[in-house]
Amino acid sequence: MSDLKMETVRERNENREMEYLSPLAALSARSRGREQPDVPCNYRTEYQRDRDRILHCKSFRRLKHKTQVFLSPEGDHYRTRLTHTLEVSQIARTVARALSLNEDLTEAIALGHDLGHTPFGHAGERALEKVMTGGFRHYEQSVRTAQRLEKDGQGLNLTWETCDGILNHTTGSHPATMEGEIVRMSDRVAYLNHDLDDAVRAGILSENDVPADIREMLGGCRTIRINTLVTAMIEQSETEIGIGELKPYYDKLHKFMFDAVYFNPVAKGEEKKVDGLIESMFSHFIANPHRLPDEYRCIADTEGLPRAVCDYIAGMTDNYALAVYGDLFIPQHWTVQSL
Asked: Distance between CA atoms of 29 and 216, rounded to whole angstroms?
């Protein structure tokens, strides 16, 4: 009988990556690994496993009930944190494939980048930032959610490269991989354009309100702008991800969106209520830790009560947060018990 070892599907895919991907790509076979050593899969590369673990986890499913920009919008077509995540993933995968980078790692980072986002969008993040000692940043919470909170405290045990991309997808340090940089830029391309689309749908502004030079250089509608920016990412990126000469117009669009939408008192009028809601719940659970679910009381025992309360609130969906707040602070109907 031959002693030759049969090549697995995973090994064949790893060899294909080495042969066909760019020298700048993060190769699955050369991953820095996981916090806890794991037996390799015969069929999936390490980054494919990361993607699958994220896609099937509870915190990913909760994203469908978390605000993107508009709180409790009336209508079926406004984005949620989940649809935002899927749009980021689609844009990032397109760029990664075009640049011969690792599409699986790119997808894993994109799908996981907002796992730790709060209810009520960035309003919820700002509210937790105020009450949590040491502050709160959703990108740090996303890594914590994946690695410490998921699977009843066991975590998803993602690779170092996926965690690095999630942690550095927004501000501060840059990702260590080109794939992480792609997600970082794709996140911006996605949210500026779909938030503008939602603002038009909500009647906050119209496409004609966008400055003329932005419309001329980037396009007069969402699909054209995204195509323009994605094309620039592909054509302008060599050793680093960028959009070349379009950067000033992207920056101007970014500023326009903050002035016209993100800080618009009409669009964001309900957000001032979020501070009180989250501060009240945080204070209540600090004073009444016995009312925390069991899994968070265990965190309180090992990492402190504020950390446990923060984890609990950050993981809530919008509707669940409202329900918990109502149960804690709004009088319930009294009913006569039958004798």
From this structure: 44
Average confidence (pLDDT) over 231-246? 94
pLDDT for the residue numbered 270: 74
Residue 11's Cβ-count burial label (10 Å; 0-12, 13-18, 19+) is: middle
Q: How far is 260 from 203, CA to CA, in rounded Å?
A: 12
In order of start, what are the domains of the chain with their CATH numbers? Answer: 46-329 (1.10.3210.10)
Please say if the pLDDT value at position 297 is more than 90.
Answer: yes
Residue 191 CA to residue 253 CA, distance in Å, equals 11
186: tokens are: 């794709």
Chain-centroid distance of CA 145 in Å reads 11
213 burial via Cβ count (<10 Å: 0-12, 13-18, 19+): exposed
The gap from C-alpha 136 to its chain's centroid, in whole angstroms, comes to: 15
- Single-letter residue type at 254: H
Strand partners for 80 = 67
Count the helices and strands in the chain (H runs, E runs).
Answer: 16, 0
Nearest to 68 by CA among 88, 44, 95, 96: 88
Taking the whole predicted model, whether its pTM rises above 0.85 is answered as: yes
User: What end-to-end distance do the CA atoms of the chain give, in Å?
Assistant: 81
Q: Is the Cβ–Cβ distance between 147 and 35 less than 8 Å?
A: yes
